[in-house]
């Protein structure tokens, strides 16, 4: 479980619950028509904006956002050094049996290509093409939550308009004015909470997870090419550590893309 995600949601929910219960009746913040407008409208707009195969991946993407990565960039370096030592000591063919037992299909494919004696440039092209497709799949999944995060406040404003219309239609009836004003205000509240505490943070966490995974795969590509070139294991380690230190760790361009560009420039 990703502790930062859990801690963030706990702190956010605690702050909101404290705010709505500290001075008044918490039931004032519960309005089912408002929730239906915001949540139902957001879901409907997101369904219209994305194909069903992307929507079907939402539960899996939520699990990814809240899970801890099994393999990090720091874990890859000792593994690549191990294979470099094995290849230098016993030859590239010696890696084949151990590679078949690897859980990571990307690393397994890369080592198999190297063992088969495929030209290094072709190895690079094959693996980088797979990274590109993976990046596109990540972006498509992330876009679902970004879309929902963009639409939730909009439907909050739509609910506000519905509430204002209801209120203005019954100016002579104080009871109707009160219910209309409640819908007008609470829908905006619901939209802001869903967008800024649920949808957009999940999209942001998926961006971070994607950057981490693409960085791992970029390290694998550099490591395999170094092994294939017959580099000393110590040199392989230094190359990968230098590559890791240069890779951007924040948002923005993908670390894998940075690695691809730097390798082409070299």
- Poorly predicted tracts of residues: 250-266
Taking all residues together, what is the mean pLDDT? 84
Q: Main β-sheet: number of strands, strand sense, barrel status?
A: none
Q: What is the total domain count?
A: 1
Assign the structural class, choosing from mainly alpha, mainly beta, alpha/beta, alpha+beta, or little secondary structure: mainly alpha
Compute the number of strand runs. Answer: 0
The whole-angstrom Rg is 26 Å
Tally of separate helices = 11
Element order: H for helix, E for strand: HHHHHHHHHHH
Strand percent estimate: under 5%
Report the principal-axis shape: elongated
| Distance linking N and C termini | 39 Å
**Share of residues in helices:** over 70%
Task: Please explain how this structure is put together.
This protein is mainly α. The protein has one domain (31-265). The chain has eleven helices and no strands. 32% of the residues are buried. Residues 250-266 have low confidence and may be disordered.
Question: What's this entry about, in short?
Answer:
This protein is mainly alpha-helical and 266 residues long.
Tell me the layout of helices and strands:
Layout: H1 3-21, H2 32-49, H3 52-55, H4 58-66, H5 73-90, H6 95-100, H7 105-115, H8 120-169, H9 174-228, H10 233-246, H11 255-265
């Amino acid at each position: 479980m990703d502790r930062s995600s859990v801690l963030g949601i706990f702190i956010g929910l605690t702050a909101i619950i404290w705010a709505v219960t500290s001075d008044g009746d918490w039931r004032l913040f519960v309005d089912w028509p408002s929730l239906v407008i915001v949540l139902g409208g957001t879901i409907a707009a997101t369904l219209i904006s994305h194909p069903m195969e992307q929507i079907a991946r939402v539960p899996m993407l939520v699990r990814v956002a809240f899970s801890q990565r099994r393999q990090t960039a720091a874990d890859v370096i000792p593994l690549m050094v191990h294979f470099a030592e094995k290849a230098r000591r016993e030859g590239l063919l010696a890696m084949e049996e151990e590679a078949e037992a690897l859980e990571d299909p990307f690393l397994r494919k890369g080592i198999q290509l190297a063992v088969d004696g495929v030209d290094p440039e072709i190895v690079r092209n094959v693996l980088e093409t797979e990274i590109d497709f993976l990046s596109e799949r990540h972006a498509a999944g992330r876009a679902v939550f970004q879309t929902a995060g963009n639409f939730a406040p909009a439907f909050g404003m739509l609910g506000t308009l519905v509430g204002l219309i209801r209120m203005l239609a019954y100016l002579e009836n104080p009871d109707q004015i009160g219910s209309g004003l409640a819908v007008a205000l609470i829908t905006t509240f619901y939209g802001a909470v869903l967008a800024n505490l649920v949808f957009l943070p999940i999209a942001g966490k998926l961006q971070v997870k994607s950057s981490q995974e693409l960085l791992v795969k970029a390290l694998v590509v550099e490591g395999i090419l170094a092994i294939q070139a017959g580099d000393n294991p110590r040199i392989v380690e230094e190359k990968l550590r230098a590559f890791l230190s240069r890779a951007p760790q924040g948002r923005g361009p993908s670390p894998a893309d940075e690695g691809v560009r730097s390798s082409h420039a070299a």
